[in-house]
Amino acid sequence: MESENNVMPAEWALHRTTYTAWPAYAFAWGPALRAAQSEFCAFARAWSADSAQEPLTVLVAPDVLSEAEAALGDLVGKVQLVPFAYGDVWVRDTAPIFVKGKTGLASARFRFNGWGEKYLYPHDDTVAERLAARAAVPSYAYDFVLEGGAVDVDGQGTCLTTRSCLQNPNRGKPASDTEITQRLHASLGVTQVVWIEGGLANDHTDGHIDNIARFVAEGTVVCMQAQSADDPNREVLDAIYETLRGAHDARGQQLEVVRVPSPGRVLSAEGAVMPASYMNFIVGNRRVLMPVFGTAWDAKAQHALQAVFPRHEVVACSARAILEGGGTFHCMTQQEPLP
């Protein structure tokens, strides 16, 4: 269904609320669950410390509601807890994407297949429909797989994405660049797609854009640069930069590309390289929350991001345990713009 020329706003547009979800189940988190819950509480506290920041709406699986309330403590009331069934926390990909148009706010819903049928958890495939109904705005369903973390927009028709994700056979029958651009135009108001070829090592999303490159203003994109010889993504990050600096937005203007440090080699509890990224920040109305991993480049990256967000306070929060689940702050949030 066409969405009446609706457009996905840039993330820095003002929000009514931002959704997230409580890390609930050991089947998704294993031994990292308690540490991830602790980092989630720190994230929620940092988010809510500025009273001018939009409220955080926390989806909580009904069977662990009392556990979440006890862990969040005095944050209950500062954040809104909503009993809601889901499998895992990654609402960037399971929730609807909110759009704006002539008739006001609406939502776009897409099929979700567990990132190419890698992680099929109960209820995740219906989160978008149920959350759209709760938001009580017009909702449009699209019969193709698209995860919110796979696209990043400037609100003016330009979209960053990766072929490794959107053209992956595990998301359905592969489509051409033109076909995908048409789909994104119909659903999100996209007129210009900037294609990147691949993503970070061991990223189970097959290369979500929110781990490698992000718009921070109209015409300005940030991406990462390796700081050490053992960075597992050194060559990929250089290739991404080269692609972006030769790209143009929907207005025909060449993109300004700002590089920030990469966190480098971050290992899981089992010793595997994880897709650690400072690009997985979330932009709120007053604060940008940036994941950090205890590496030598955390502070330098925070300083670099603060320079491109002069109207926000960039706050660094540990996400080392949350990353054990496969993503960090942007992956576990989805914003609802002001109508």
Number of helices: 11
Q: Which homologous superfamily in CATH is the superfamily?
A: L-arginine/glycine Amidinotransferase, Chain A
Overall structural class, as computed from helix and strand content, comes to alpha/beta
The geometry reads as: globular
Name the strands of the widest sheet in spatial order: 3-2-1-16
Low-confidence stretches: none
Percent in helix = 25-40%
Secondary structure tally: strands:
16
**Percent range for β-strand residues:** 15-25%
How can the largest sheet be summarized? 4 strands, mixed
* CATH fold topology: L-arginine/glycine Amidinotransferase, Chain A
Query: Roughly how many Å is the radius of gyration?
Result: 18 Å
Our count of domains comes out at 1
Tell me the CATH architecture: 5-stranded Propeller
Give structural notes.
The chain has 339 residues and is an alpha/beta fold. The protein has a single domain (15-337), classed as L-arginine/glycine Amidinotransferase, Chain A, CATH 3.75.10. The protein is 26% helix and 25% strand. It is built from eleven helices and 16 strands. A four-stranded mixed sheet has the order 3-2-1-16. A three-stranded mixed sheet has the order 4-5-6, with helices on one face. It has a three-stranded mixed sheet with strand order 7-8-9. Strand 4 (97-101) and strand 5 form a beta hairpin. The protein is globular and about 50 Å long. It starts with 14 loop residues before the first strand and ends with a strand. The model has no long low-confidence stretch (mean pLDDT 97).
